[in-house]
Write a structure and sequence with these properties.
- α5 (about 70-80) packs across α6 and α13 (about 215-225) packs across α20 (about 400-410).
- The chain has 28 helices and 17 strands.
- β15 and β16 form a beta hairpin.
- The two termini are about 25 Å apart.
- Helix content is about 50%, strand content about 10%.
- With about 675 residues, it is α/β, with parallel strands linked by helices.
- The strands form four sheets. It has a seven-stranded mixed sheet with strand order 7-3-2-1-15-16-17. Strands 8-9-12-14-13 form a five-stranded mixed sheet, covered by helices on one side. A three-stranded antiparallel sheet has the order 4-5-6, with no helix packed on it.
């Protein structure tokens, strides 16, 4: 315990706070015990953090990465058992840890002696569990234990079964678990405890939604995760805007889902009623080939018929046209956003099948515009209005979606700082010289850290019931700006050329010029300037990003600016696998430094359970420290030091009689 140098004067200055603290620690003995406990915690190894970005609905791969702790559990099993068990036994044990319920079912069907299997498995699981819990205090481990088996697990974990005096006791516990028919439940509880202890804190750097079929399943897991922070991505705020009732965000969400032939999250996940859109699309575009709206069908995941694909293409066109109109409406309603270049419908010449942009005619790939009124190009037809209003009602009434958005609000934000790491999804607006770019939002000039705070406050106000409906609607509009606005820190480009990429062949007009952040982010001085702006301290400090996939196959590296910046979007989504050459990253920060785990494509949960197939990953050492980091070197450690100082003042107050002990 550190020796206190607290004076009586310091105690008297803080007397009100110390009296509140005394409620939790009413005696000298309780204070000294807590100080001893906290001092001991400071000298434990730093717990392991995992960073993931751009999961994009790939729930099976995501769940597997959590279950295997990005390969860390497999490594521990190999270290703990070495050659004492075969490679096949190690694989079987790992599969059991990852998927206990499914694995136990298959083992029973295989006809093995279950009594012997239980004994061997329980002994091995306890060894693994003991190892992954070694970084934590008994108190912290105890809080992680399943209540039903807490006492038994604690006894097994802290009693060595190789000590003669305890061996019979240890074996009796194991045999009783099996004899009472609780082995399956107990093994499952142990496996999930191992998974939980292998990752102390999870950082999600945005883009949970879109592309893959299971964003709702990912959100279910995240909302229940023990230690978590989320930095919002542009795809996340798009869904948040849809949940807030913004019709342009709703149209964008639907367009992206239909483009990827992925309505699982919408229909199965959030019970969004797609029937009104399907009915309208079939009637309105019955004779339209909808050639450029053909969805990207993943044949491994779906068994769509030609009729299904035809309907999806019609729905895709219907909602795209609605989005083009609504984006014009919202841009005109907010001229301060500088997005009038997204008002393109008025320049379409229906008769000639061309559009005139900046004085140049461009032939359009789709020349059929039955719902476009040239005199009022941004007006929805009555049928379109009815469809989007029905969809709006469905989004706002989806209880599961609203719960997930509430989780994003409670556990997320625009940026996070944790253990000298600055995390944000995409970019911080900067100028050509690397200085912070000043932007006007809601009449206020802001830049850097204050810009991020301002943006977050504006986004949150869409769900603030203390505001008027008009104020919330204005805030909901802002989600669309965050999705694709030129100064949005979640986008980082001059424009989102959705209209041009869909309808025009000219590559020049399809370009989306990147902001200065993406041009200068390999400059160490620029990164240091951003870290200084956000007040990030420490010898080893970093920016950690996602948003733009790293093209590993083209030789691009995720480590930039002499190690100051790490980009961890490796392409979880199957759409990106050919582009990136890999299938995602996990950045792992443990007590000895940073490692980047590069994942190969994940087949399926079924394959993983049946054949023991694991995600193969390549580990790259990013940065190692000379000395092992302890809790005292972390943000939590700094908080503990403050608490110790407070307790030392309370101790002086007791000993000097300023505050009386309460036996």
């Amino acid at each position: 315990m550190s020796k206190s140098h607290v004076t009586i004067e310091e105690v008297k200055e803080d007397l009100r706070y110390l009296r509140l603290l005394a409620r939790d620690f009413p005696t000298v003995s309780s204070v000294t015990t807590e100080i001893i406990n906290l001092e001991a915690i400071l000298h434990l190894p730093k717990p392991t953090e995992h960073f993931l970005a751009d999961i994009h609905g790939e729930h099976e791969a995501f769940q597997h990465v959590l279950r295997n702790a990005s390969g860390n559990i497999k490594r521990k099993v190999k270290e703990l058992f070495g050659d004492s068990i075969s490679n096949e036994e190690r694989k079987e044990l790992c599969t059991l840890i990852y998927y206990p319920e499914e694995k136990l079912k298959r083992v029973k069907l295989s006809g093995v002696d279950m009594s012997n299997y239980y004994i061997v498995s329980l002994h091995r699981l306890i060894i693994v569990c003991r190892d992954v819990s070694s970084k934590y205090t008994r108190s912290k481990v105890r809080k992680s234990l399943p209540e039903e088996y807490a006492y038994i697990i604690e006894e097994l974990m802290h009693e060595a079964n190789d000590i003669v005096n305890k061996q019979a006791y240890f074996n009796a516990i194991i045999n009783t678990i099996i004899g009472t028919g609780r082995a399956d439940h107990f093994i499952t509880a142990l496996c999930y405890l191992i998974q939980r202890l292998a990752i102390d804190r999870l950082h999600i750097l945005g883009d949970i939604f879109d592309r893959g079929p299971g964003a709702h399943n990912i959100m279910d897991a995240l909302c229940e995760y023990h230690h978590l922070d989320i930095t919002w991505g542009n795809h996340d705020v798009l869904w948040m805007g849809a949940a807030a009732g913004n019709t342009c965000c709703i149209a964008s969400v639907l367009r992206l889902s239909l483009r990827d032939a992925n309505t699982t999250t919408l229909e199965d996940g959030y019970a969004i009623n797609m029937v009104p859109l399907a009915t309208f699309a079939m009637e309105q575009y019955a004779d339209d080939p909808c050639e450029i709206y053909q969805p990207r069908v993943d044949e491994e995941r779906t068994n769509f018929t030609d009729k299904d694909v035809r309907l999806i293409a019609q729905m895709h066109k219907a909602v795209s046209v609605i989005e083009f109109k609504l984006s014009g409406q919202i841009a005109m309603a907010h001229p301060e956003w500088g997005m009038m270049d997204r008002c393109l419908m008025e320049f379409i010449d229906k008769k000639r099948g061309v559009i005139n942009i900046d004085g140049t005619d461009y032939e359009m790939k789709d020349k059929l515009w039955p719902t476009l009124d040239p005199k009022n190009p941004y007006a929805l037809t009555p049928e379109e209005s009815d469809v989007i209003e029905r969809l709006r009602h469905s989004f706002m009434r989806s209880e599961r979606l609203q719960n997930h958005v509430n989780c994003l609000l409670m556990r997320g934000g625009m940026y996070a700082i944790y253990n000298s790491n600055l995390m944000f999804h995409a970019a911080v607006p900067i100028n050509e010289d690397g200085s912070m770019r000043e932007v006007v939002f809601d009449g206020e000039k802001v830049k850097g850290k204050q810009l991020m705070k301002k943006v977050e406050r504006m986004a949150r106000s869409a769900f603030d019931n203390d505001l008027t409906a008009a104020e919330r609607e204005k805030a909901a509009d802002f989600f669309w700006y965050l999705w694709c606005g030129p100064e949005s820190p979640l986008f980082g480009k001059a424009k989102m050329a959705t209209f041009e990429r869909y309808l025009l062949s000219d590559k020049e007009v399809q370009k989306e010029p990147k902001g200065w952040y993406y041009i200068l982010r390999d400059n160490a001085d620029v990164c240091d300037g951003i870290l200084d702006e956000f007040g990030v301290k420490g010898t080893h400090r970093h920016i950690i990003n996602g948003h733009v996939p790293v093209r590993v196959g083209h030789g691009e590296t995720p480590i930039k600016a002499n190690g100051r910046l790490m980009v961890i979007d490796g392409g979880f989504s199957k759409v990106y696998h050919n582009r990136t050459g890999i299938a995602g990253y996990t950045l792992v920060y443990h007590s000895r430094g940073f490692e980047l785990v590069q994942h190969e494509p994940f087949t399926s949960t079924e394959e993983a359970v049946t054949n023991g197939t694991d995600i193969h990953g390549t580990t790259q050492i990013v940065e190692m420290t000379d000395n092992r980091e302890m809790v005292q070197d972390t943000d939590i450690g700094r908080g503990i030091l403050i608490k110790i100082a407070d307790l030392e003042r309370l101790l002086v107050a007791y000993r000097k009689g300023v505050i009386k002990e309460r036996p």
